[in-house]
C-alpha cells in the first residue's frame, strides 16, 4: 500500500481558536477516506488545508511524495466538489465540464472526446446542452463530479457533496459515487457528518472531535471496536452502563455480574460498559436459541428483564428493557420483527 497523502503535525488556528491540533494522517493511494465528526470538529478545515484553500498554521502536507504544504490550490493536483453544486449557471453542462480541460490547454477534439466520455460515465449524455438550472439537484451534483474529475486529478476532494439532496437521491448517489470511485481508483477524501454515509461509502473513516483525530479505521473496526466513548456514542446507538471492573473480562452492574471486554482497566476501576442495542437478544426461558458460538457467548450474560417500551421503526423494534434487580441496567434493545412475533413480545412482558 502506497501512501498518497502524508499529513504531519498539522495545526490550524483562526486567531485564538485552534481548529486543528496536531493532525498526522496517511491517505493510501486509491482509497476512499471519510472525515466524520460533529459540526465544528474541523473536518472542512482539514479538507481545505489539503486543497490549499486555507494554509495551515504549522505542519506539512505531502502529495505523491511532493511537499505541497505552501503551494496555492492551482499548483496542487486535485478536483473538488462542494455541497452547493457551484456550477456556472450561464454555461451549458458540457461547457461546465470542459472548463478545466480548456484551461489545461486541451484542443477542441480532445475536449469533446473527454466531455462525451464523462457524460457517459455519469449517465447523463442527453443533458449536454442544458443549463444547470434545468437539471435536478442530483443531476447537478453528478455534473459537478464530472467537472472535478475531468482533468483526471490525482486526488478527489468531496465536501459534504450529498447533504443538499433529498434522502432518496442521496442514497442512490452514494452508490453511484462509490462505484465511480472504485472504477477510477482515484484517491478520494470526503467530508461528512452523516455516519451512515461514511459507513456505507468509505474504505476507512477518520473520526474527528474538537480538532483532533479520535480514531482511524475501516467502517467495521470503527463500529465494532470504538477506541473511545466518543466514537462509540457518535457512530450508531450505544447503551452506556456505569459499571465496576471485578476482574479481567468481568464487570459488576448493581448486583449483577456481566462478562465484558475490560481492556486495560484494572479490577476496581469505575467504567462505562458499552453495548449495542442489536447485541441484546431476547429469549424466553423455555426457548433455546440455535447454538452458534456467538449466541452461546451472548447467552452467558442472561438476565430477567421487563419490557418497558416498544417503538416500531420499520425494520426492527426499538425497545427499552429494565432489569429490576440490577440498578442501572436499563437498556435500549433492537429486536427483529421475527423475534417480537416469535416470542409475542409486548410492553410489560418479562423475558
Ligand atoms: P461542519 O460539519 O459544521 O461544517 P466542520 O467539522 O467541517 O463542521 P470546520 O468548518 O472545519 O468544522 O470548523 C472547525 C471550527 O473552526 C469551527 O468551530 C469553526 O467555527 C471554526 N472556523 C472555521 N473556519 C473559520 C474561519 N475562517 N474563521 C474563524 N473560525 C473558523
Folded structure, characterized:
- Keywords: ATP-binding, Cell inner membrane, Cell membrane, Membrane, Nucleotide-binding, Translocase, Transport.
- It comes from Pseudohalocynthiibacter aestuariivivens.
- Pfam families: ABC_tran, TOBE_2.
- This is 2-aminoethylphosphonate ABC transporter ATP-binding protein.
- The structure is a single chain.
- The chain has ten helices and 17 strands.
- By secondary structure, it is α+β, with helices and mostly antiparallel strands.
- The protein folds into two domains: 232 residues, Rossmann fold (3-Layer(aba) Sandwich), CATH 3.40.50; 104 residues, no CATH class.
- A six-stranded mixed sheet has the order 6-7-8-3-9-10, sandwiched between helices.
- A hairpin with a 2-residue loop joins strand 12 and strand 13.
- The model has no long low-confidence stretch (mean pLDDT 90).
- The structure holds adenosine-5'-triphosphate.
- The site of adenosine-5'-triphosphate has 12 residues, from strand 2 and helix 1.
Amino acid at each position: 500500500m502506497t501512501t498518497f497523502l502524508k499529513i504531519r503535525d498539522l495545526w490550524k488556528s483562526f486567531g485564538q481558536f485552534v481548529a486543528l491540533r496536531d493532525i498526522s494522517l496517511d491517505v493510501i493511494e486509491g482509497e476512499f477516506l471519510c472525515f466524520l465528526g460533529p459540526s465544528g470538529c474541523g473536518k472542512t478545515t482539514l479538507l481545505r488545508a489539503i486543497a490549499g484553500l486555507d494554509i495551515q498554521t504549522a505542519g506539512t502536507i505531502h502529495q505523491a511524495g511532493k511537499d505541497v504544504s505552501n503551494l496555492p490550490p492551482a499548483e496542487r493536483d486535485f478536483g473538488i466538489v462542494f455541497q452547493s453544486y457551484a456550477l456556472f449557471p450561464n454555461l451549458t453542462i458540457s461547457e461546465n465540464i470542459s472548463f478545466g480541460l480548456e484551461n489545461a490547454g486541451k484542443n477542441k477534439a480532445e475536449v469533446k472526446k473527454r466531455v462525451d466520455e464523462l457524460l457517459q460515465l455519469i449517465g447523463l449524455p442527453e443533458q449536454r446542452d442544458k443549463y444547470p438550472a434545468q437539471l435536478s439537484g442530483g443531476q447537478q451534483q453528478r455534473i459537478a463530479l464530472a467537472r472535478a474529475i475531468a482533468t483526471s486529478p490525482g486526488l478527489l476532494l468531496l465536501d459534504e457533496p450529498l447533504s443538499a439532496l433529498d434522502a432518496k437521491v442521496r442514497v442512490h448517489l452514494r452508490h453511484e459515487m462509490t462505484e465511480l470511485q472504485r472504477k477510477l481508483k482515484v484517491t478520494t477524501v470526503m467530508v461528512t457528518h452523516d455516519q451512515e454515509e461514511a459507513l456505507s461509502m468509505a474504505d476507512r473513516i477518520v473520526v474527528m472531535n474538537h480538532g483532533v483525530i479520535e480514531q482511524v479505521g475501516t467502517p467495521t473496526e470503527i463500529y465494532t471496536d470504538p477506541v473511545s466513548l466518543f466514537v462509540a456514542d457518535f457512530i450508531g446507538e450505544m447503551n452506556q452502563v456505569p459499571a465496576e471492573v471485578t476482574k479481567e473480562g468481568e464487570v459488576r452492574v448493581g448486583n449483577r455480574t456481566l462478562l465484558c471486554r475490560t481492556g486495560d482497566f484494572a479490577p476496581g476501576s469505575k467504567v462505562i460498559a458499552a453495548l449495542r442495542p442489536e447485541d441484546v437478544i431476547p429469549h424466553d426461558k423455555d426457548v433455546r436459541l440455535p447454538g452458534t458460538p456467538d449466541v452461546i457467548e451472548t447467552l452467558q450474560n442472561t438476565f430477567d428483564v421487563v419490557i418497558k417500551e416498544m417503538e416500531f421503526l420499520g425494520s426492527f423494534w426499538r425497545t427499552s428493557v429494565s432489569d429490576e434487580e440490577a440498578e442501572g441496567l436499563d437498556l435500549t434493545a433492537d429486536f427483529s420483527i421475527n423475534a417480537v412475533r416469535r416470542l409475542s413480545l409486548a410492553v410489560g412482558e418479562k423475558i
